[in-house]
Amino acid sequence: MEAQARGLLETEPLHERDEDTVAGADFSSMLSEEEKEELKAELVQLEDEITTLRQVLSAKERHLVEIKQKLGMNLMNELKQNFSRSWHDVQTTAAYKKTHETLSHAGQKATAAFSNVGTAISKKFGDMRRK
């Protein structure tokens, strides 16, 4: 009985299976005519409130677009800003810094090695010309 009473007090939202269970039940035979009328009135009121909220949301979204246009913000600018912010975040990570240092060091060593190879080749060609 306690588990059943606790079920009535749950504050968790209904899940799809719960909605299906409730939708499949026929409560109309358990309600008086007065209760049915009250529920119908509440249903109409809720539908009106939902419609109003949708209209308000739509108006706010239009206003948002207008403000962004006045500020010169568009989708491409927002994408660029998001990319720049994300790239900055990546660059400040320890992993990126360590990788950057390692690759930079490897690049310096490779440059020095190519330089040495180039010098050696030039020297060989010079020796071959002199012979």
From TrEMBL:
Span list, region Disordered: 1-22
Keywords: Coiled coil
A GO CC term assigned to this protein in UniProt: cytoplasm
Coiled coil residues, start to end: 29-63
Domain of life, source organism: Eukaryota
A Pfam family matched in the record: TPD52
Single Gene Ontology BP annotation: positive regulation of apoptotic signaling pathway
Family per record: Belongs to the TPD52 family.
Descriptive protein name: Tumor protein D53 isoform X6
Species per Swiss-Prot/TrEMBL record: Camelus ferus (Wild bactrian camel)
Primary gene name: TPD52L1
